[in-house]
Design brief:
The protein is α/β, with parallel strands linked by helices and 361 residues long. The chain is built from 12 helices and 13 strands. It folds into 2 domains: 26-34 and 75-198 and 278-360, HAD superfamily/HAD-like (Rossmann fold), CATH 3.40.50.1000; 40-64 and 200-274, Trehalose-6-phosphate phosphatase related protein, domain 2 (Alpha-Beta Plaits). A 7-stranded mixed beta sheet has the order 6-5-4-3-11-12-13, sandwiched between helices. The protein has a 4-stranded antiparallel beta sheet with strand order 7-8-10-9. The protein has a two-stranded antiparallel sheet with strand order 1-2. The protein is globular and about 55 Å long.
């Protein structure tokens, strides 16, 4: 497809940018590429956050994703789990089928971070990646184009991963940066090193909301607000479950005054995001296009993730009719992923990576 002009950024030189714009954005003065999004309809849709039913839905969903809740459910419904694992079998058990499906095609890897490459921990600042996982991902990137697609801001996840040869899509894909050196998989050798930020004009607004959320939730013991640059995350993990509804109400009350922002629910977290049509699935598609695989039938994307936000990427693969999604979960949950990997995730994921590397060599 025809490449569009891009705007070069020289910030954060240690993580250089090497992706080219695949969809026509509206460029503005300055360093960033900006995304044009509809306003009026989004404002009306955002009024949903005022509903009590919406809050209850978020809280119930977070309870359902709790491991302790899942264990209780599983003990009462083993048949349900058996049915689920038949529909989403282990990627390790089905490895030969994955190899057959990817035969003669370029594998492209997309990896969530928290709960996939690192364990889920109470303190989000301590979600460290193991040395063995880092080494394995580095080897993976030498064979396949590899991207980290995460809700974290790029700076935080890069400090955890510390691999300059990867693509990074932070804030659920609203901040995309390429490897720090010429990447052999990028078919457009002349592409400039760029930064893609589809909602850059909302950065001051998100920073303002972050401060308000910190102030509003400080009375709730265990509540933690994380600034992920293009989104603000309110963590429920260390909050007494009886206080979850109260905390959700606090978050909702802040968002009432910001129609350009919306709330989404993840694994024991509520996240404030811009009201634009952008998510991890869009980020996956953007990266494939940037790598030159927009209309290629010879590409095989693999996306591995554990959270509700990863479902957008799983669905995108189904829409494309290419590749497969792998859900990291020990417990049955609704998913569009084809396969699963059980927790603890590190051993199973490293094993899958090693098999892919061995087959490729």
């Amino acid at each position: 497809m025809t490449q569009q002009n891009v705007v070069v950024s020289d910030t954060k030189p240690r993580i250089k940018r090497a992706v080219s714009v695949a969809q026509k954005p509206v460029t503005v003065p300055g360093r960033y590429i900006q995304y044009s999004y509809p306003r009026s309809r989004r404002v009306l849709k955002n009024l949903e956050i005022n509903g009590e039913q919406r809050i209850n839905s978020w809280v119930d969903s977070m309870r359902a994703s709790s491991p302790t809740h899942a264990k209780s459910t599983l003990s009462l419904a083993e048949e349900q789990y058996t049915s689920w694992i038949l529909r989403h079998p282990s990627a390790l058990d089905m490895f030969e089928q994955i190899v057959d499906a990817s035969q003669g095609k370029q594998i492209v890897m997309f990896l969530d971070y928290d709960g996939t490459l690192s364990p889920i921990v109470n303190d989000p600042d301590c979600a460290y990646m193991s040395d063995s996982m880092r080494k394995t991902v580095r080897n993976l990137a030498r064979c396949f184009p590899t991207s980290i697609v995460t809700g974290r801001c790029i700076e935080k996840v890069y400090n955890f991963v510390q691999l300059a040869e990867l693509y990074y899509a932070g804030s659920h894909g609203m901040d995309i940066k390429g490897p720090s050196k010429s990447f052999k998989f990028n078919k457009d050798k002349k592409s400039e090193e760029v930064l893609f930020q589809p909602a850059s004009e909302l950065l001051p607004l998100i920073a303002e909301v972050y401060q308000e959320l910190v102030e509003k939730t400080k009375s709730t013991v265990g509540a933690r607000v994380e600034n992920n640059k293009f989104c603000a995350s309110v963590h429920f993990r260390c909050v007494d479950e009886k206080k979850w509804s109260e905390l959700a109400q606090q978050v909702r009350s802040v968002l009432k005054e910001y129609p350009k922002l919306r709330l989404t629910q993840g694994r024991k977290v509520l996240e404030v995001r811009p009201t634009i049509k952008w998510d991890k699935g869009k980020a996956l598609e953007f990266l494939l296009q940037s790598l030159g695989f927009a209309n290629s039938s010879d590409v095989f994307p693999i996306y591995i993730g554990d959270d509700k936000t990863d479902e957008d990427a799983f669905k995108k693969l189904i829409d494309r009719g290419q590749g497969l999604g792998i859900l990291v979960s020990k417990f049955p949950k609704e998913t569009s992923a084809s396969y699963s990997l059980q927790e603890p995730n590190e051993a199973s994921i490293i094993s899958l990576f090693h098999r892919l590397l061995h087959h490729h060599s």
